Fold:
Amino acid sequence: MSRAAETVLPTPPDVLRHTFDAMSVGVIVLGRDLRINVWNRWVESRSGIAESEAIGRGLDALFPDLANSYFMSAVHGALNGGYPSVLAPSLHAPVFPFFAVPGVDTERMRQQIHVVPLGGASGCLVQVIDANAAWQRESTLKRKHLLLEESLELQERLLQQLEGNKAELQRQVRERTAQLEELAGHVQDLSEHERAQLARELHDELGALMTAIRIDVARLNSQSETTTERHQRALKNIDQAIQIKRRIMEGMRPTLLNNFGVVVAIRELAREKAAVNTWRFGIDLPDEEMPISEQLSITLYRVCQEALTNAAKYAEATEVRLSLRLENDFLVLEIMDNGVGMSPVREGRRGGHGISGMQHRVLARGGTLEIGPASPQGTRVVARIPYQARSESARDRSLREDEAN
Amino acid sequence: MTPQLSAIQEDALTEFFNIAIGRAAAMLSQMIGEGIELSVPVIRLVRGQEAAEVLGGAERRVCSVMQTLRGDFSAEAMLVFPESQSLEIVRLLLRDSVPLQDITEMEQDALTEVGNIILNACIGTLTNLLSGDFIIGLPQFRLGACSEILAAGRRGQEDCMLLLHIDFRVERHAITGYVIFMQDLPSFQALIQSVDDYIARNVSDVPRS
Structure:
C-alpha cells in the first residue's frame, strides 16, 4: 500500500460540489490530518453546523466526544491502512449529533456509517445514512411479532382451558347418566316386583274366591225359568271374570317364566306372536334352561316382548328370526325381521317409549342395546348383557332386602 | 494447475492469519462488550467446486459478506456462514434481538460490520505479503445458495481459492465460518513466493520447499 504524503484535498470543483449537495446521504471528506474538506448540504441540515463553519476544521476539534471512539479507529484504519469500514446502527450508538430536525429533536438519528479510504491515501470519505426509518420499521416488526406470539400463547391457553372444561362436562354427563340408569333400573325392578306380588294375590286370593263362588252358584237350585236364566248369566259372568283375572296375571307375570324359566317362556311367546301375525319364524335358543337370575330373565323376556310387538305393529314383516346365545360371558339376544326397517323419521315414532324401555332394561343390567337395519332389509335388535352363571347382582340382593323389609 | 502449499508454507500462513484475526476478535469484543474469540485452525487451497463441498453443498443456504481487492493484484475476500449460524451469531451480538424467522435489515447491517472487521484483518495479512497498491472495496452482504454466492466472487476458471476455517466463539456458542480468498494464479504464485521469502528470512535452518 502506498503511503502518500499528507495532503489536503483541493476544494472540489463546482460540479462535484453541486453533486455532493444534491445527495440524500451525508458526505464528509477528511484529509489525512482529519481536517474537513467536504461537508455537504445533507450534513449541514442534520447537524445544524454550516458548511463555512465546518470546512477546514479538524473533525476531532468539531466533535471532541469522538476521541478514542470506535468510529475514530475506523477513520485511522482508512487513512493509514486503506481499510474501508461500515458501522451498523444496531451495533453502535449514533456517532454524530445529527438530528432529523436539529434544535427540535432531542434524540440523535440512527446512523449507518461507511468510512471509505480515498485513492492515493489522500484522505477518507465518511458517508452517513439516516437509519431512523429502518430502525422504526424493525422495532414495529419486533413489537408486532411479540404481540403475535403473546396472543398465540393466550389462544393456546384458552384452548387448553376449553378442552379441560369439555372433559369435565363430559365426565359429569357420564356420571349423571349412570345415576339415571341405575335409578331407572331400580324403578323397573320395583315395578316388576309389585306386579309379581299383585299377580300372586290375584291368583291366591281373588282366584280362589271366584272359583269358590262359581262352584256355589252352579249348585244353586233353579226355581223358575227367569231364575235359571239369571243363574246362567251369573255363571257366564263369573267365567269371564276368571278369564280376565288370568289374562291380567299373564301380563303382569308370565306364568311360564315363573314356572319353566326364560327359554321356555321366550319360545312360547315367539310361537304365539308368529301364529297371530302369520310370520315364517326361525328360532335358535339354548337346549336347556339357563341358570340366570330372576331380574335377568325378566329383562330378556321383556326385550323379546317389545321387539316382537314392534315387528308386529310397524314392520310389516313376513319373517322373523330370534336367537339367544352365550358369547364370551355375554348373553346375546338377537331379533331380526325382514320388514320395512326404521326410517329416521319413523324411529322417533315407532314405539318411542318401548325402545327406550328396552334400552333402560338392558343398560340396568350393564349391557348394550343396538337397534339398526338388518341385511338385506328390516330391523335388527341386539342386546348384549354380561353374564356370570348363578351370580347374583347387587341389585338383586338389595331388592330381596327391600322385599324382606 | 492448482498450486500446492507445503506444510511449512501452510503453517506460516495459518500463523499470519491467526495474529490478524486475533486483533479482529479484540475489536469485536470491545465493541460488543463481550468476550469473542476468533481463530483460524485450518487453511487450505481449493478449486471452485471443492469450496462448495466444504461449505456444505452447492444448494446450501449461506450468508456472505464480500469485499473486493483491486490494484496490482485482484482478489475477492468473502466471509461465509451457513444461514442458520449467521442468525445465531447476529442474535448473540444484538441482545434485544427477537428471533424472527428471517434475517432482518438491521441484522444484515450488523453481520456486514462483523464480516467487515474479520475481512479487513485477513486482507491486511494478504496485502502485507503482496507488495503493491490496492483499493479495498466496501463490504457487500448476500444471502443465497452456496453456488450463487461463490459464483459472485469468481472471475475465471483457473481461479483457485485460499480457504480459511474460522472458529467463532461467543459465550458457550461455537460457530464455524469460512473466509475465502479468490485470486488468479499469478497472484497466488506471488503470495507463495512472499511466504517463502519470509520463511527464508526468519527460519534460516529450515530448507525451502
